[in-house]
Amino acid sequence: MGANKVLHNLPTFSTYALGAVIMLFLGWLFFLVYVLYCIFSTLWFMRFICAHCPHFDNPKCPSGYARVAAKLFKERDSKKFNDTFRRHIGIVFPSWILPVLAGIYLLYYEFSITLLVLFSIFIIMGFIMLPVITKKYGCEDCNLKDSCPRMAGFKKRKG
């Protein structure tokens, strides 16, 4: 995996790891369910989004998921990529929302400096760094950026 692909994915997997640690403050069961959900949602993303992407099984995929997705799933109709992207992107939202809800709950009922630091890093990584790095190291150099629903979201926020 090239340097850009590592930079593109590092915030995502860092966010998942921080989210898992936050969930661990609630207990092992919450931690386990969260980790399994992150794995499930990543596989779902590959199956329903990557499999429809024109970059399927192509090293030009900005995230690097295309090669992994090709080993696990069959290629689908790339003409349905935009529609499929919009329909299935929500699968990843619980990976970001659950640690936020858990963090707020824990900070209110069981405040600790350690949790505050982890929660702050999670918020910075997941809601600031991730979008910036995704755009700069993934979407910006992608030859599909003019038609991709993800970049359309960035353009709407800009203008």
What's the SSE blueprint?
Layout: H1 3-24, H2 28-48, H3 65-72, H4 81-88, H5 93-109, H6 113-139, H7 149-158
Structural features:
0% strand, mainly alpha, single chain, 159 residues
Low-confidence stretches: none
Shape: elongated
Order of helices and strands, N to C?
HHHHHHH
Briefly note the structural class of the backbone.
mainly alpha
Please tell me how large the radius of gyration is. Answer: 17 Å
For the record, give the distance between the C-alpha atoms at the N and C termini, rounded to a whole number.
33 Å
Given the structure, what is the number of helices? 7
Task: Estimate the mean pLDDT confidence.
Answer: 85
The beta-strand count equals: 0
Strand content: under 5%
Q: What kind of sheet is the major sheet?
A: none
Number of domains: 1
Helix content: over 70%
Account of the protein in words:
With about 160 residues, this protein is mostly helical. It has one domain. The chain contains seven helices and no strands. The longest helix is centred in the last third of the chain and has 27 residues. It is elongated.
Summarize the structure.
The protein is mainly α and about 160 residues long. Helices cover about 70% and strands about 0% of the residues.
